[in-house]
Amino acid sequence: MSSRRDFIRTVSAPVMVMPFLSESQIQTPVRFDVDGKVLRIALMGLGSYATRVAEAMRSCTRAKLTGIISGTPSKVADWKGKYNIAEKNCYNYESFDAIRNNPDIDAVYITTPNALHKEQAIRLARAGKHVICEKPMALNAIEGKEMIDACRKASVHLLVGYRLHFEAKTLEIIRMRNEGEFGQVLFFQGLSGFRIGNPSQWRLKKELAGGGAMMDIGIYSINGARYMIGEDPVWVTAQEVKTDPLKFGEGVDETITFQMGFPGGAIASCLSTYSMSNLDRFFLNGTKGFAELKPSTGYGPILGRTHKGELTQPHATHQTTQMDEMAAIILDGKKPMVPVDGEEGLKDLKIIDAIYKAVKTGQRIRIKLD
Ligand code: NDP
């Protein structure tokens, strides 16, 4: 089997030149690709989530997998055959800047460990490609802002893989809230957690994950509180518990409970953990009614009910809907009901920064997201 280094040497760069978009074009429908109908996507980091996205994209009508970026030659060989990807659309982490010259790829979806997102996104922006990045968008707000600035400068979109922002039952609750069906929203509960296995995985390494459960799963309760309540928090408090300091080392949070206050008077009470399963539930309560999603963020089907009864919107594979909707955002300038842009990702990073600060100081931390 060839080594990573041999592979890097043998990957060749395509040759055609791709124009950058102007700053003003980004506001209007973007016609980045040749036929303007299908968004051609390369996946970067061929791990478990990329595999899920690639399989889901088989059913997409507006997004197509045309390229891959990987550090593992055997995966490249496998994926080329499985997804019919041309040799000239295959890159590794050293060669992918050459993607700027590849007219077969409009956007790159980053599905690598969290700590790699920022640098990879900035390089892709400089290569003139739209960036779709997995959550958490980066390790902290400073990094997130750098990504936004780089994408803005290159006039490319920066989207974050918030698949639940396109999920039908979730959107129905948001519609009901917008129409006042819950009355004044006063409370949200978010429970996000699972028991993490293999202690040597990157998710438990501070330098690759940027933290622990909060970066990986707790972020769902943060993001969920915002889209369920429909406001951004103005303060946070948080408490950390660690039962296994060997598995969850310095800077890797095992369990954090946190509370957020919202300008309209609502309070969110949330749990983020790597030590307990059966935690995937959102509950929203208002003066006139309630909504519950359980499961709320897993791959589905998402199940839910409100004071009016069961939610019956049909299940669709999240990543299929997400990729088609993201293609519409990039190609047609479509505005999603809940944003999935870099600013949205940055808000969650600012909240995570504040939660870690609250844990450290024991103080209530005020936050300003706009
Ligand atoms: P995996 O470990 O399964 O895959 C990550 C891939 O990144 C690897 O297979 C590898 O691919 C590549 N990689 C590059 N450098 C490294 C490195 N130093 N260490 C490990 N892998 C490396 O992770 P996931 O797919 O589960 O997660 C990837 C991202 O997706 C994370 O940011 C995570 O938070 C997010 N995610 C989002 C989900 C969602 O529902 N939205 C669900 C799961 C994850 P290669 O060999 O091709 O280089």
**What's the number of extended β-strand segments?**
15
- Structural classification: alpha/beta
The number of helical elements comes to 10
Q: In which range does the helix fraction lie?
A: 25-40%
> What is the arithmetic mean of pLDDT?
92
- What's the structural domain tally? 2
| Largest sheet, strands/sense/barrel | 9 strands, mixed
- Please tell me how large the radius of gyration is: 21 Å
Return the CATH topology of the largest domain.
Dihydrodipicolinate Reductase, domain 2
Model regions low in confidence, pLDDT < 50 over at least 5 residues: 1-34
The CATH architecture of the largest domain can be named as: 2-Layer Sandwich
Name of the CATH class of the largest domain: Alpha Beta
Outline:
globular
Instruction: Spell the H/E element sequence.
Output: HEHEHEEHEHEHEHHEEEEEEEHHE
Give the strand line-up of the largest sheet.
14-13-12-11-7-10-9-8-15
User: What is the rounded distance between the termini?
Assistant: 51 Å
CATH superfamily of the largest domain: Dihydrodipicolinate Reductase, domain 2
Strand content: 15-25%
Ligands in the model, by name, code or SMILES, are: NADPH dihydro-nicotinamide-adenine-dinucleotide phosphate
Overview of the molecule:
There is one protein chain. The protein has 370 residues and is of the alpha/beta class. It has two domains: 3-160, 3-Layer(aba) Sandwich (Rossmann fold), CATH 3.40.50.720; 164-317 and 341-366, Dihydrodipicolinate Reductase, domain 2. It has ten helices and 15 strands. The strands form two sheets. It has a nine-stranded mixed β-sheet with strand order 14-13-12-11-7-10-9-8-15. Strands 3-2-1-4-5-6 form a six-stranded parallel β-sheet, with helices on both faces. Residues 1-34 have low confidence and may be disordered. Bound molecules: NADPH dihydro-nicotinamide-adenine-dinucleotide phosphate.
